[in-house]
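Q: I'm building a small set of examples for a reading group on sequence design. Run inverse folding on the following structure and report the sequence directly after it, with nothing in between.
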């Protein structure tokens, strides 16, 4: 195996502590939800799983810490995918245990689960991006544009987690089984893919990073988050009388649709205005074609 370049040790330690702390808290939920002899078996299983995950994390986190000063975010995408894949499996079993034990109405523990996820998941994404370590982005304005775009990613992550939290928080009337499964795995796929898309946009830009060309994530988030989650919340509020639907996030979705639509229209106009300018500059810089040399006198008719 090729040895990694020198890593940013504080970055590696911080990301590892954050990941393992969230895993340990999810393990505590799983152990506390089981009683008797089954509790010991669950404890052994989660410990073995955490040891295996820590072994893999030891190598991936070092490579992530080695690329924070560059535009590359390949190992950051791998780490994010691995973390969300394992974390959401544990969240799924916690949610199923809450669903099976409907008499357990510990609203504080359920709200605490939502709070923990809404803290750990966005903070890890910000650490993996490490915008303050991108020393090659020297222009303050350009770095602020990137930071503003990443802020929208964090808000979208909170939006997805809010939709997913409706499944385990106490509710008067439960959703149909197919709707719950579809909602959970839809949020699962979004958490896996969309942050990786944002990280890949940074990787593809390289040193000459151009924020206005990072348009793939805004398009995907407009459709998959702002539009579809608006319909999900509206359906829960109208058909299932769910009073826990966040009206603030519904307003956020409406505002985001308006703002992103305006930015797309402005970007399209900018492309159309730049096309004639580039064509005219090409015509001005084009070399003059050589004039045909006259035929010799003795070859003329």
């Amino acid at each position: 195996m090729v040895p990694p370049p020198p890593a940013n040790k504080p970055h590696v330690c911080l990301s590892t502590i954050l990941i393992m702390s969230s895993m340990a808290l999810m393990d505590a939920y799983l152990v506390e939800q089981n009683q008797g002899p089954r509790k010991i078996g669950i404890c052994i299983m989660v410990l073995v799983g955490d040891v295996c995950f820590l072994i893999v994390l030891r190598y991936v986190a070092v490579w992530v810490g080695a690329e924070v000063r560059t535009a590359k975010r390949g190992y950051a995408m791998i780490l994010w995918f691995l973390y969300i894949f394992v974390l959401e499996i544990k969240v799924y079993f916690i949610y199923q245990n809450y669903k099976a034990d409907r008499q357990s109405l510990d609203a504080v523990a359920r709200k605490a689960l939502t709070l923990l996820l809404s803290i750990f998941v966005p903070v890890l994404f910000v650490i993996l991006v490490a915008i303050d370590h991108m020393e090659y982005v020297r222009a303050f304005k350009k770095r602020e544009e990137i930071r503003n775009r990443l802020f929208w990613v964090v808000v979208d992550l909170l939006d997805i987690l809010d939709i997913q939290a409706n499944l385990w928080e106490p509710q008067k009337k439960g959703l149909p089984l197919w709707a719950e499964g579809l909602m959970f795995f839809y949020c699962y796929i979004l958490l896996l893919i969309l942050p990786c898309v944002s990280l890949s946009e940074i990787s593809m830009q390289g040193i000459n990073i151009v924020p206005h060309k990072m348009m793939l994530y805004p398009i995907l988030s407009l459709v998959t988050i702002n539009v579809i989650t608006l319909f999900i919340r509206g359906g829960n509020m109208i058909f299932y009388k769910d009073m826990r639907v966040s009206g603030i996030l519904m307003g956020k979705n409406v505002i985001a649709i308006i703002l992103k639509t305006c930015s797309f229209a402005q970007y399209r106009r900018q492309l159309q205005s730049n096309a004639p300018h580039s064509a005219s500059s090409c015509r001005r810089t084009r070399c003059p074609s050589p004039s045909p040399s006259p035929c010799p006198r003795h070859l003329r008719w």
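Residues 9-276 form one domain.
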